[in-house]
Specification:
By secondary structure, the protein is of the alpha+beta class. 22% of the residues lie in helices and 36% in strands.
């Protein structure tokens, strides 16, 4: 999982434009509002691993990673769908899915597919309001 998280962070930093490299990071909690950094941002969170041994002694492991698009809640509609000047969370979520789908990371994984995209929702710490959309990706390796 550790290597997968690092690979996702590196790939998203190279593939996603208009988000500072330092604002694409591994997070311990997708609902955590960072004290440093800026928005828009992308948080990467480890998910579960399903281990499945097949009758043929072949392993079929599925690793899930949640990648979250964040924007500062300022211009309500624009923060969801974007404008010519600002990326909305739905646009960032689409870019995450495009960047990671079928990404095999040097043949470490046999498939990489999106499992789900959540609805946009607001998180707040009382002073800052952030709009977020989570995307769950599944990476499968056969061995």
């Amino acid at each position: 999982m550790k290597t997968l998280l690092k690979n996702c962070k590196h790939l998203l930093r190279t593939e996603i434009n208009d988000i500072r490299s330092t604002d694409i990071y591994i997070t311990e909690d997708i609902r955590l509002i960072r004290k440093n950094g800026s928005y828009p941002a992308i948080g990467i969170k480890d998910g579960g691993i399903d281990f499945a041994a097949q009758a043929t002694d072949q392993d079929d492991d599925s690793l899930q990673v949640t990648i979250v698009a964040y924007v500062s809640l300022q211009r309500q509609e624009a923060m969801i769908i974007g404008t010519s000047r600002y990326k909305g969370v739905l646009e960032i979520a689409e870019e995450i899915i495009t960047a990671l789908t079928d990404q095999h990371f040097n043949d470490q994984y046999d498939s990489a597919l999106p499992l789900s995209q959540g609805q946009s929702e607001i998180i707040t710490d009382g002073t800052t309001a952030i709009l977020m959309v989570p995307v769950v990706m599944q990476f499968t390796r056969l061995g």
